[in-house]
Amino acid sequence: MDILQNKEQTYISYSDEDLFVMMSFREENEMEAQAAFRIFYDRYKDFLWSLCYKVCQNDEELAKDVFMNTMMAVYQNSHTYNASKSKVTTWMSNIAKHEMFDLLDVLKEKRIGEKTFVPLDDNLVVPDIKDDTNIETPEKKALNEALQTLSEKERDVLLTYMMYQDGNKHLPDEVTKLLCERYGTTSVNLRKIKQRTLEKVKTHILQNTHLLK
């Protein structure tokens, strides 16, 4: 154990790409792969939790599921990361976004169905938050339902804006480029899609809850 702990101290100075390489060899050396993952987890847990909590509209339970499943996906798919195409944070954000899409698709009434997520290690825990905002409200239910009525492109564009700039400002250039290439459109059209989608969500919420009228 002391030897492994000493190695982990060495891994702290490793780049993200080095850690990904170690994780990708988890079948050959699981202990070192998990040690590398713990370093990566500590490095990015606060960033990812903040992102998940924001994009899940402060729904703590949903954010926890998205957070943990994203971390697991990073560990299992570390070999797919390409530093020449995107930053690590952009890559993780895309994973988190699609994990949320999957969860929204299996929402049943008020709570998520039977899909569960197990941490890689008992010591890897979701960062604590102090406020209690995981109470189901008419607004939150209406929002989840509204997101499920959107097309994949609409959800993708809207949630990406929400992730990076709370939907109010321009996206980072590399993120804009990725979305434009994905949907064969321009940055101007992306903003139009975002605005139209926001109006659709707002209309749905207004029609399904009295509290926002």
Point out poorly predicted stretches. Answer: 108-122, 129-135
The percent range for helix content is: 55-70%
CATH top level class name of the largest domain: Mainly Alpha
The H-and-E topology, N to C, reads as HHHHHEEHHHH
Number of domains: 2
Per CATH, what is the topology of the largest domain? Rna Polymerase Sigma Factor, Chain: A
Please report which band the strand proportion falls in: under 5%, 5-15%, 15-25%, 25-35%, 35-45% or over 45%: under 5%
Instruction: Give the averaged pLDDT, no decimals.
Output: 76
Radius of gyration using CA atoms only:
19 Å
- Annotated CATH homologous superfamily of the largest domain: RNA polymerase sigma factor, region 2, helix turn helix motif
Secondary-structure-derived class = mainly alpha
- The number of strands is 2
The strand order across the widest sheet is 1-2
